[in-house]
C-alpha cells in the first residue's frame, strides 16, 4: 500500500486528485494539505511514502515544503519521497523542485494513467519526469545554461560538500559527524547525487563528478 498526502491549494483539484488516487487498491490517501506549511506538518504526523506536491501555494511554496519534508524525513529515518504535480513548467520551477529533492515532476494536464504510474514509480524509488520537462532539462544542459558548470548536473552546495567528503574516503557516519547532520540525511543527499549524476554507487559518483569538473 502506497500512503500518500496530496498538497494543493485548490480545493477542487486537491479533492479530485485524492478521489482519483483513492480509487486504486494499492494507494491510500492519508491526508490533504491546502498549503506548504500544512504539507510539512502532515508529513511529520503521518509519515507517508509519498507527497504529491503542487508548487505555487500560499505561505510556503512547494519547493521549500519539499526540502523541509525530505530533510525531516531523513533525520527521522523515514523514506518519504516527493512527486511534483503542477501546471508550471518554466526552467526556474523545474530546477527549483529538483534541487529541493523532488523525485519526479509531472504536469496536471497529464492523463490519469500517467499520474498514477508516476506515483507508483516514485514510491518504488524511481525518478519520473514528464517528456516536456525532460526535454527542457536536456536543452538547458546542452546550451550550457545549467546552474552548475556547462554540461553538468546541478548539485546543491550541500550535495557537493557531501560528495567531496566521499571523495576523501569518509564513511557516512564520518560525513554526518563532520557536517553535524544525521546519517540518514547523508544517505538522502547521496541518493540525490546518484540520481542527478545517473550513477548507482559512491565510486562512480566521484569519478563522474571529476569527469564533469564538479570536483
UniProtKB/TrEMBL annotation:
Record carries keyword Phosphoprotein: yes
Gene Ontology biological process: phosphorelay signal transduction system; regulation of DNA-templated transcription
Key words of the record: DNA-binding, Phosphoprotein
Keyword Phosphoprotein part of the UniProt annotation: yes
Residue intervals passing through the bilayer: none
Coiled-coil positions: none
Annotated CDD domains: LuxR_C_like, REC_NarL-like
Name the UniProt record assigns to this protein: DNA-binding response regulator
Highest classification ranks of the organism: Bacteria, Bacillati, Actinomycetota, Actinomycetes, Micrococcales
